[in-house]
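Intended use. Records such as the Tubulin beta chain entry shown here are meant for training and evaluating sequence-to-structure methods. They are not intended to support clinical decisions.
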Amino acid sequence: MDSVRSGLFGQIFKPDNFVFGQSGAGNNWAKGHYTEGAELMDSVLDMVRKEAESCDCLQGFQLTHSLGGGTGSGMGTLLISNIREEFPDRIMNTFSVMPSPKVSDTVVEPYNATLSVHQLVENTDETFCIDNEALYDIHFRTLKLPTPTYGDLNHLVSATMSGVTTCLRFPGQLNADLRKLAVNMVPFPRLHFFMPGFSPLTSRGSMQYRALTVPELTQQMFDSKNMMAACDPRQGRYLAVAAIFRGRMSMKEVDEQMFNVQNKNSSYFVDWIPHNVKTAMCDIPPRGLKMSATFIGNNTAIQELFKRISEQFTAMFRRKAFLHWYTGEGMDEVEFTQAESNLNDLVSEYQQYQEATTEELGEFEEEEEEQAAV
């Protein structure tokens, strides 16, 4: 907290808006959600209320947390459900750092992540899945940085976060806000887990010397190596895509490029949602760049990420390993089984829509039309 205050942007934050806790959750979701985290909840919510009251038109809430530890996952999801209760009609948007496939910080990551996803499925409108391994890969492969720091990783994430909210903050030719994004990106309420991407990829401190073109931006944006979640979009299909362009550029050129991408790669887009790419344009580029693009994809391949967590969860839960840490904080085993089945349901829903064709879905539409006629 003190390092944030004394850091480069310390002046941005109101001194009253810092909440301190004297203890940690010790990588235990139950501690964050039921005991240690719950004690801080009142003071956090008071602060949120105070800020919300001074807003003219509150768009929604944006939360950054990780799902592998105890505080971000346990207390983070508790905060989400409390804010949801108090502001049910506002958008809830999270940037969630998922456990990485090969790099693990904590043994109980699968438990914490599964219990968190169980909450996120029900309580958020948009969840951007980010994982450290994918960010490291971007640094090694694309930016050629052999030893990236957390500061470098955060630079990538912050560029994406800034891109998502850019239309709220700056004038543009074609605006998009968090609600428009949700309406265009979420075909079914549970399937709101997105893969973010950003282009042009630049390392911290190095300005882009080469002027980029719109075709190059578009190509890099859809490149699987650009995704900030460790799953391959080519293994699934896009239900919806949003592209937010920043900088002075021709609308016509942007539309043509987006149309080309869909035409050339039509097999990667589901055919039963026509025109499933939303484009937004903002005139003000990020500092140091002439133009940039933020990519948000709702792709069925995100199930790889959940499958991986689910398999690790099952392997440990079958043996009841480490369970006493959670039951000791007042949790019941039933919560674990519910969370596991919810996660597995989510995976099978993604799979179902990946394989679905227009003909199959036509049957549902006919039934709906009959009901509407009645």
